Amino acid sequence: MDNKAAIEYLSSLLNKTLHVHTNDNRIFVGQFKCTDKDRNIILATTQEYRQPSQAALEKAAAVAEEAEGSGAVKLSMVPRFVGLVVVPGEYITKIAVEGLVIMPERSK
Q: Tell me, what's the pLDDT at 63?
């Protein structure tokens, strides 16, 4: 992708909701505001989602055991509003645009 196309693509993402995954298993969901040459990403009105704590997992497992269920424990990620954030590019593992549908290529 040449420089002009890259700038146009990034410009088209401005104010779109991005899901930014990091290598410590957190997910930041917020409006894309800008990036830089180091791949840092700035998001506004951001929610951070973290894995449940070990204590929460143990409590859910104990409740499931008491209920004599299937033994499967299901917990949601824990959300926290963090507002305006900078996600360092070196920790980003995946970026997804909310609502973006990629059409498969048609065979000719």
A: 79
